[in-house]
Amino acid sequence: MSRVTLSRYLIEQTRSNNTPADLRFLIEVVARACKEISHHVSKGALGGVLGSMGTENVQGEVQKKLDVISNDILLEANEWGGHLAGMASEEMDNAYQIPGRYPKGAYLLVFDPLDGSSNIDVNVSVGTIFSVLRCPNEYLSQNETLNENAFLQPGTEQVAAGYAIYGPQTMLILTLGNGVKGFTLDRELGSFVLTHENICVPETTAEFAINMSNQRHWEAPVKRYVDELLAGETGPLQKNYNMRWIASMVADVHRILTRGGLFMYPRDAREPSKPGKLRLMYEANPMSFIIEQAGGASTNGYERILDIKPESLHQRVSVILGSKQEVERVTAYHKE
Ligand code: P6P
Questions:
Q1: For the chain, is the Cβ count within 10 Å smaller at the N or the C terminus?
Q2: Domain Fructose-1-6-bisphosphatase class 1 C-terminal spans what residues (predicted)?
């Protein structure tokens, strides 16, 4: 059977009326930009792109050269196509306005251009995370500046989400709201090829991911739950658990999509004013959409992440996602 490329998959989705042509075009453009980012990431020291810019982003985080390069690649790839009303990124304080010389479209693209970039200099997998929303009619205008409030929609409004992971293979994981597909980059062809037809998160797991160095800062429900995980078969969960923490959300989530697991980045006492470290719009929401579409679950400890009504573009959130049974357990502890 001939191999199904991303382009063919998207054409077939359009034919089955699941994916409007301009959304198909959007995904194709984002995928092409991810191929270019993969090219730069894989050059490493040979490309003169490692290390920091000596600047900070809106999060107050040091910007790596590749953060900025990746952000620019996504902006330049998407701004001219006529499918977007605007863009927003972890690397930019404000929403990106489509230049007046280009037509505007009906979608909003939100992304973390290079998540986990602190891992780049040590050659550990990183990735690009993206989320697609419709621009509400009241904000659609060819001539007026896009109001940032257009982006402040709950994750349930996403029409597509995905990530590219730049690891031993470069893969694109995509959901259009009808399951999760995986595409592997064939560098000889230059195409993403469908290799994972129907990705499903196992409902149970014996593996968890959390940064244990923050243990003393966690709230009681998380401390209780992790203590039970560490107690293994001698404790109430009556089985032994393994732990992984890559400190690259794309890589940790990809492992969970592949073999199950639980990912936690809970709020902690280090910065009590912040509800968590990870960003809602371009990390938690797209990853939660993907995880739920794959049969998993995702909460902030109290409510479904996809139901959260954003109040600001760079809003942070606690994240507990992965195998449904464990997400439900630790969420129940928060509600006791
Ligand atoms: P820590 C990467 O900077 C990131 O945003 C996620 O990709 C990752 O899960 C998390 O932060 C790692 O945080 O505090 O363990 O370095």
A1: N
A2: 201-335
- Comparing CA positions, the residue from 116, 33, 125 lying closest to residue 67 is 116
Is position 202 within any domain?
Answer: no
The structure's pTM equals: 0.96
> What is the Å distance from ligand 1's center to 3 Cα?
35
Task: Report the distance separating Cα 25 and Cα 21, nearest Å.
Answer: 6
Q: Is the CB of 292 under 6 A from ligand 1?
A: no
Confidence (pLDDT) at 322: 98
Average pLDDT of the segment spanning 240-261: 98
Q: Which domain holds residue 62?
A: 6-196
- CA 72 / ligand 1 centre spacing (Å): 22
Mean pLDDT of 9-28: 93
Asked if residue 124 and residue 224 are part of one domain, the reply reads: no
In this structure, is residue 201 part of a structural domain?
no
CATH classification at residue 224? 3.40.190.80
**Is pLDDT at 175 greater than 80 in this prediction?**
yes
Domain termination residue (choose one: 196, 228, 259):
196
Which among 204, 222, 199 has a CA at the least distance from the CA of 320?
A: 222
DSSP labels, 36-48:
HHHHHHHHGGGGT
Asked if residue 90 belongs to a known ligand binding site, the reply is: yes
Q: Is 61 known as a binding-site position?
A: no
Determine the pLDDT at residue 18: 81
**pLDDT value of position 1:** 57
pLDDT of residue 118: 82
Distance CA 69, CA 112 (A): 12
Counting ligand 1 atoms within 8 A of each CB, the residue from 52, 90, 115 with the most, and so the one to mutate, is 115
Question: According to the annotation, is 36 in a ligand binding site?
Answer: no
